[in-house]
Design goal:
alpha/beta; Dna Ligase, domain 1; Rossmann fold; 5 domains; 7-stranded mixed β-sheet; 6-stranded antiparallel β-sheet; 30 strands; 39% helix; flat
């Protein structure tokens, strides 16, 4: 298989790039937005992409001569820079087996295209070798507005439009990543051969995906590459059609900061020693008053400097007419003034040398005031000020006792960092944290993301010793590649959970190729977030629960999951949840099966799930849980509890917590999750279990297993378990 690194070492690399570059330049100079079929073939040849033998005929006699030289059967296709969809124009005929058929097809194609597009330029007819039979797949690349060049693979031909079974990766890809794409489609088994059909040549397909990804990455001016169909057979793969679309505009590069620059700025933002509040106020009900009170009442140990030209003293602290009058170094300026006053105040912040500005006010791009926001960004970049916001609720950095927000204070310190693009979601995060007593290291609003965004914060949280898990609500990413880079650096040490809002394919409506039409916003996000090792949450509740639970669970050390339940019905539901989350139910060995049976009644059931039945005393729960924890072949436990008088909820919770703690003291750490069904007493029991390292939920069999599945997905992404995909595509 070909790895991306071999492309850079390959002989003829520069001549190949020069040839393709000349073709693209000539097409753009001619005002064209696509290459012709013969030009596409030359590009394919330069990158080692197999295509059928072919030639260009300008008359029927030339077509007949070419067909004789290539060998029958042949296909004829229109060549016109003005006809992208050849089949729709009646510009394709296949399976031609004689000179007479070729002549007739030539005339018919020209007539069809003239009727379809009277003003289209016809450069000739492409005479092409009929491709040997094989499984039709699609390989392509598209320029995504968030992630840049991405490569796509899936079933091809008409199936691509019906099933949309396609997977995406950032381009260029390695051979290993390309192979994962072959395995990542729902119909992956088809490629291995079904109903007597031979398996396709995987190595040839991998090489093809790698080549297309490198082609797209090498030339920013290429908007889309579309090989459809590609016929994959047991002895190779061949692209029957090559389409290359060109970009009509040049990308505007975004300002990028080095990792060191990001960490320096974020350190002063998240661990400030001095904060100025621009627009601080003594009047209750004003944002400037709420921010000041939260900073003071929250116990921030650093200096707090109110800035208000109409006040001498605010909340017992000297007020300054301008931020330029504030003495000493200031790390953060929090803005609590109307939007129209922000540019002038930001100029003063820049001249003062303050590195961070937190813009709480709304009234910028979110209300149509793009010019005002652009002015703010220009001022900030001119002075080197990093801007958080605007249009945010502020931020919390609990380990610094910093509550720089107009919302309610929160001071429960812990390992979870949470961010949100939406203020409403931010309040939901705050309420959830409070109701569940989730310890957080930070809660940060991002709002319009005029500057500081998820990749900046993720870079910081990845290094922050107080953060063990990062959860982010986002509606978009300004720079998807920067986010992926930050995620890849963070995932080996701590999990990242993302709730991506906006599951829409609207961005694909104007696409000019099959690949482009398949690159719906959510499809690309889904695959590339998975490629980066990020855990994608299906909803807000799941994002918050994953963030709360993942730091509690130890990392699994193997795939074998065992269910122990007091109710057969919950055992079935828990089994379904295990399968739905891509986990593996252990096949119980005979000796372990016999050991379980020794503790359960005859009408119970060993195997997996282990059904101890509902009337069993606490000793049965304890004995079976001990067996699961003690056996090194068992890697994770899922417990299903059913409320009974014989074993009340809190009794179950206390014995489970005690046994798990005992084994952890011995160095045996396995993830244990529990589902509790019963009266309201199970709620207190779940809280007790959570506080003692067992992730437990009342009234649901799905959520505890989903959390376990998320932990497994992170463990695989972090390299702690073999690389099988730990989650099901949803």
């Amino acid at each position: 298989m070909t790895d991306t690194t071999t492309w850079d070492r390959a002989a003829g690399q520069e001549p190949r790039r020069a040839l393709v570059g000349d073709l693209l330049r000539q097409a753009r100079e001619a005002g064209r937005t696509s290459l012709t079929a013969p030009e596409g073939r030359r590009v394919a040849e330069a990158y080692g992409i197999p295509t059928p033998a072919e030639g260009l005929a300008e008359c029927s006699d030339e077509a007949v001569a070419l067909a004789a030289r290539i060998g029958y059967p042949v296909a004829l296709k229109i060549v016109s820079p003005d006809v992208l969809h050849k089949t729709e124009a009646g510009g394709v005929r296949v399976g031609l087996r004689s000179a007479a058929e070729v002549r007739g097809a030539f005339t018919s194609i020209v007539q069809n295209v003239r009727a379809y597009a009277p003003h289209a330029r016809i450069l000739g007819i492409q005479v092409q070798q009929m491709v040997p039979a094989g499984q039709e797949v699609i390989v392509g690349a598209v320029t995504d507005p968030t992630f840049g060049k991405v490569v796509a693979f899936g079933l091809g031909g008409v199936l691509v439009e019906v099933l949309r079974d396609v997977t995406f990766r950032l381009a260029p890809v390695s051979a290993q990543e390309a192979a994962s794409m072959l395995d990542g489609i729902r119909a992956a088994e088809v490629l291995k051969g079904v109903r007597g059909a031979p398996a396709v040549d995987r190595a040839a397909l991998v090489d093809l995906v790698v080549a297309v990804s490198q082609l797209a990455a090498d030339f920013p001016e290429i908007a889309e590459v579309d090989l459809n169909p590609v016929f994959a057979a047991a002895d190779g793969a061949m692209a029957a059609d090559v389409r290359v679309l060109l970009s009509t505009t040049d990308a505007v590069p975004r300002r990028r900061y080095s990792r060191e620059e990001i960490l320096t700025a974020m350190r002063r933002l998240m661990r400030p020693r001095s904060v100025a509040v621009i627009g601080a106020s003594d009047a209750r009900g004003k944002i400037g008053n709420s921010v000041m009170r939260n900073l003071v009442d929250g116990g921030f140990p650093g200096e707090i400097h109110p800035v208000n030209p109409k006040a001498d003293d605010i909340l017992g602290r000297k007020a300054y007419r301008s931020v330029t009058d504030v003495p000493g170094d200031v790390d953060v300026a929090v803005f609590a003034v109307p939007a129209r006053f922000v540019p002038g105040a930001l100029e003063e912040v820049g001249r003062r040398g303050i590195p961070n500005a937190v813009l709480i006010p709304s009234g910028f791009a979110e209300t149509g005031e793009e010019a005002l926001q652009e002015q703010v960004v220009e001022i900030a970049e001119r002075y080197g000020v990093r801007v958080l916001g605007p249009n945010i609720y502020g931020y919390y950095s609990t380990w610094q006792d910093l509550c720089a927000t107009f919302c309610t204070p929160y001071d429960v310190k812990g390992p979870v960092a949470l961010t949100s693009q939406s203020g409403g979601i931010g309040m939901a995060i705050l309420g959830f944290a409070r109701s569940t007593r989730t310890g957080v290291s930070a809660i940060v609003g991002l709002g319009n993301k005029s500057d500081v965004d998820e990749d900046d914060l993720l870079t910081w949280f990845g290094e922050d010793p107080n953060t063990a898990c990062v959860a982010m609500h986002l509606e978009d990413l300004k720079d998807g590649r920067a986010f992926v880079e930050a995620a890849r650096a963070t995932v080996p040490r701590k999990p990242i959970v993302v709730l991506k809002a906006g599951r829409t394919g609207a961005g694909a409506r104007a696409a000019g190729s099959h690949t482009g039409a398949l690159a719906g916003d959510d499809a690309v996000y889904d695959d590339i977030l998975r490629q980066a090792g990020v855990i994608r949450a299906p909803g807000l509740r799941e994002m918050l629960e994953y963030a709360r639970a993942l730091p509690v669970l130890p990392a699994p050390r193997g795939d074998n999951v065992v269910i122990i339940t007091g109710a057969g019905g919950s055992g079935v539901l828990l089994s379904d949840a295990v399968v739905d989350n891509g986990l593996q139910l252990m096949t119980i060995p005979d000796d372990l099966d016999a050991a379980f049976r020794a503790h359960i009644p005859p009408f119970g059931a060993a195997g997996n799930p282990v059904d101890i039945t509902g009337g069993e005393p606490p000793a049965t729960y304890e004995a079976t849980i001990r067996l699961g924890l003690a056996d090194p072949r068992v890697h994770a436990l899922v417990l299903g509890y059913w409320h009974t008088i014989v074993t009340p909820p809190m009794v179950f919770a206390e014995l489970t917590a005690r046994v798990v703690a005992e084994f952890r003291e011995r160095g045996v750490e396995k993830p244990v999750v529990a589902s509790l069904a019963g009266d309201t007493e199970v709620e207190d029991a779940c809280r007790h279990l959570f506080e003692h390292g067992v992730v437990a939920y009342p009234y649901t069999t799905e959520l505890p297993v989903a959390v376990l599945g998320a932990k497994y997905r992170w463990a695989r992404a972090a390299g702690l378990l073999p690389g099988r995909d730990g989650g099901v595509r949803r």
